[in-house]
Design brief:
Blueprint: H1 4-25, H2 34-49, E1 55-60, H3 63-66, E2 76-77, E3 88-97, H4 99-104, E4 110-117, E5 129-135, H5 149-160, E6 168-172, H6 178-187, E7 190-194, H7 199-204, E8 214-220, H8 221-234, E9 237-243, H9 247-255, H10 266-269, E10 276-281, E11 292-294, E12 297-306, E13 311-320, H11 321-341
Parallel strand pairs: 1-3, 6-7, 6-8
Antiparallel strand pairs: 1-2, 3-4, 4-10, 5-8, 5-9, 10-12, 11-12, 12-13
């Protein structure tokens, strides 16, 4: 188990991490510079993660997907030289979930990080996508990724006390989902197509009055693990299965020991029951308000969640510009000194 001292506060420390990534990347909104925005978020997130008293390993990072120089899979992270027992952790990070919406000035871009005990997070290896079905707590336990779309939507509707025609299903707007969209429409359920980022709507399916009942379709495999961490905190559920894009990728998965037919649940994707999750809005969205600027500085809205307590905090913060710059400068100096000592 995690040691008791950081165990109490590490969730709020993670909010500082996602706030930093959001504040660093928000100035790039609408400037159509995805690489620059991502680098700003990665740098800020790594800087803040290294201030937390933990011995962390990045299991889901930026390296495989975005060829980032930092926050790559397997990177050791955190202030593990702190003078007391520090928890050994797995981390899943996405400094910008929705890089394209941020670059184009569109809604629903967020910064996210999840943390759990060492060895508890599933690593999808080179497989980029997973087929997913995510629902909130009312429908947890009734879904089956091997069942038909109609059977799943009928089960979700019964569990939520609705008719199928009242359900809203979120699907990424991709050519690969043409058949899925046809099957959803055939049931009479309502459909909401999104351009990017299926973590936020999966979280929204667990919250009241968001207008989201389920998320379906193939999306990023790393995001499936991040979603599982969030849904474990909210008592929702995700089912996911590795989605090989072609026979070559399927053969590679088999050679590496991955089973593309196996349906994994939230408990398979994140085995720990002591999970922390934080997210901060970058651009305005249905789940979180984005970064807004004023004469005083900037405001952010974040979520902080923990599975073992079931607590979810919604945090509104005001950041003074001059204080932020000084804090970041001091932290960069400390990190530079630390690197010299290695």
């Amino acid at each position: 188990m995690m040691s008791s001292t950081p165990d109490r506060n590490i969730g709020l420390e993670l909010v500082r991490v996602t706030e930093s990534a959001a504040l660093a990347s928000a100035p790039w909104m609408g400037r159509n510079k995805k690489i620059e925005a991502d680098k700003a978020a990665v740098d800020a997130m790594r800087l803040m993660l290294n201030t937390i008293a933990m011995d962390g390993v990045i299991v889901i990072g930026e390296g495989e997907k975005d060829k980032a120089p930092m926050l790559f899979n397997g990177e050791r992270i955190g202030n593990y030289d702190a003078g007391f027992d520090v928890p050994k952790c797995d981390l899943a990070v996405d400094p910008i979930d929705g890089t394209r919406p941020l670059a184009l000035g569109l809604p629903n871009s967020i910064a996210v990080v999840a943390l759990a005990e060492r060895g508890s997070m599933f690593f999808p290896g080179p497989i980029v996508y997973m087929d997913k079905l995510a629902v909130g707590p009312e429908a947890a336990g009734v879904i089956d990724l091997n069942a038909s779309v109609a059977d799943n939507l009928n089960a979700i509707a019964r569990a939520k006390g609705k008719s199928v025609t009242e359900l809203v299903v979120v699907v990424l707007d991709r050519p690969r989902h043409e058949q899925l969209v046809s099957e959803i429409r055939a049931t009479g359920a309502r459909l909401k197509m999104i351009s990017d980022g299926d973590v936020a709507p999966s979280i929204a399916s667990c919250l009241p009055d968001t207008g989201v009942d389920a998320v379906m379709g193939a999306g990023g495999a790393p995001e499936a693990v991040i979603t599982a961490a969030a849904l474990k905190c909210l008592h929702g559920e995700i089912h996911a299965r590795l989605y090989a894009r072609d026979e070559k990728e399927k053969k590679l998965a088999e050679e590496l020991g991955y089973d593309c037919n196996r349906v994994m649940t939230s408990a398979d994707l994140v085995k720990s029951d002591n999970v922390f999750f934080a997210a901060t809005g970058i651009t305005d969205g249905e789940l979180l308000r984005g970064v807004h600027y004023s004469a005083m500085g900037a405001t952010t809205e974040s979520l902080a969640m923990r599975s073992s307590s079931g607590t979810m905090r919604r945090i509104l913060a005001t950041h003074r510009s001059e204080k932020l710059q000084q804090i970041l400068s001091d932290q960069k100096e400390r990190m530079a000194e630390r690197e010299k000592l290695k």
